[in-house]
Design goal:
Length: about 450
């Protein structure tokens, strides 16, 4: 990435003779697509914290958590936050969910600390999802958590305060296109009362609410749009984009606004691109189980090993990992999520150096034993499966190695390293007796 390409990295790339640029670096074309008046240097400065972070928490929370995946006593297929659409629930019936939405166990500080202890550097929370329900106090519509529920509090304000207290970056998800409740919003065609003018929807709901979320909670670091196109054509997107930039000029926006805006980041969902997005900043968002919003019967939990290897795989391709939690209607992050976050955090405390501020591995070939990240003149070998011969081969590495050592070894005892060879590259030997982490073990390789 541009921010980290110092002289040492440049020399290393030259020695490696790698032709392709690092995935995740922003090209001038990408910068122009994001903001026509922004220089490459300005973009690198604005994106710097995001590229350094590598790991964030996504929070899908809304009135759909009350339904918890069921309607009229029957389970509804699909992801939890889409239940209104999947079951074609009329607006009048769906609105009754708010009557019992009272998350009295919500503790914003506990959420922020759970993210921080997991090694996450930023949080992105749903302020309005496709059902149109606002999780913040809004003057644009009574369909919000303060006015429509017995809770009567603004959880977004509490979260913003907790993030500032603990040094956590904060971002907001906002569904600008799909809105199944407010007339004129995208979707919602199963209810005749939803018909309306898209311009009225944008002018009376989207723009006022965007002004509220960007103007009432202090600095906002990320704006995460969802579902481009639909009612958000070019003229409407222009109005939204202009409003955002006037209020939060340093904000990071994704590629889902619509109207032809590419945004700052690509957003693969529930998968990791084989080669990342060379020339573009990108972020994989992914669930811990099978759904984003809370479903009480969804127990398809990914293992901690799977989550850690996803993080390593993404970082090795120059991307960020936005890992989701779906809180309950009472306001608690599910215990299974907290358990995994704690375990990930334990690994990150020892090995975070191999993730934060790193860039894509400078290797064209996939490595059968794991992945590689880089920072300055150091490569980090993220070992998933140690070969039986205990040799970690780096076939494309032609640069002499100054030292290799286990990252968790406080004494940094040198490991045996072969000299660069034009045919086989470099190999690092993990000696007998070294206990490998069940998920990922990290070997640091410092280049001359």
């Amino acid at each position: 990435m541009s921010r980290y390409q110092g002289v040492a990295v440049g020399m290393m790339i030259a020695c490696l003779a790698v032709i392709a640029g690092p995935a995740g670096a922003a090209s001038p074309d990408a910068a122009q697509a994001s903001d026509p008046v922004e220089t490459q240097e300005e973009r690198d400065d604005r994106m710097g914290w995001w590229r350094e972070a590598r790991f964030g928490m996504f929070i899908h929370w809304g009135v759909y958590a009350v339904a918890a995946g069921e309607w009229d006593g029957k389970p509804v297929g699909g992801i939890g936050e889409w239940i209104m659409s999947k079951a074609k629930i009329p607006i009048a019936d769906y609105s009754k969910l708010a009557q019992t939405f009272n998350p009295e166990k919500y503790n914003a500080e506990a959420w922020v600390l759970a993210a921080k202890d997991a090694g996450m550097k930023y949080i992105v929370i749903t302020t309005k999802h496709h059902d149109g329900f606002a999780m913040f106090k809004t003057a644009a519509s009574p369909w919000n958590i303060v006015d429509a529920t017995p809770y009567k509090r603004d959880p977004i304000k509490d979260l913003a305060d907790a993030c500032r207290k603990h040094g956590m970056r904060l971002g907001f998800y906002y569904s600008q296109n799909l809105d199944w409740t407010h007339p004129g919003g995208g979707g919602g065609d199963w209810d005749p009362s939803h018909k309306g003018d898209p311009d009225d929807y944008v002018n009376k709901i989207v723009l006022p609410q965007v002004k509220e979320i960007l103007g009432n909670y202090g600095p906002v670091d990320v704006l995460w749009w969802d579902i481009p196109g639909g009612v958000i054509n070019k003229p409407r997107a222009d109005l939204i984009y202009k409003t955002v930039k006037e209020l939060q000029p340093k904000i990071v926006m994704n590629n889902r606004l619509g109207g032809g805006y590419r945004g700052d980041t690509e957003t693969p969902e529930q998968h990791i691109p084989p080669k990342g997005f060379p020339g573009r900043d990108w972020e994989t968002c992914m669930t811990m189980n099978g759904t984003w919003g809370f479903k009480k019967n969804d127990d398809k939990w990914k293992s901690t090993t799977s989550l850690l290897r996803n993080l390593c795989d993404i970082a090795s391709k120059g991307g960020n990992y936005l890992l989701n939690v779906g809180p309950t209607p009472e306001g608690e992050i599910p215990a299974a999520s907290l358990e995994r976050l704690k375990e990930v955090g334990q690994w990150m405390k020892d090995n975070g150096e191999s993730i934060y501020g790193t860039s894509a591995a400078p290797f064209g070939e996939a490595l059968r034993w794991g992945r590689v990240t880089r920072k300055g003149d150091t490569l980090y070998l993220l070992v998933f499966d140690l070969p039986k011969d205990r040799l970690l081969a780096l076939p494309e590495l032609k640069t002499p190695v100054e030292k290799a050592y286990m990252l968790t070894d406080r004494e940094k005892k040198a490991l045996a390293v072969s000299m660069p060879d034009t045919q086989t590259g470099v190999t690092v030997t993990v000696p007998e007796g070294v206990v490998m982490d069940a998920s990922v073990t990290v070997v640091a390789v410092k280049l001359e």
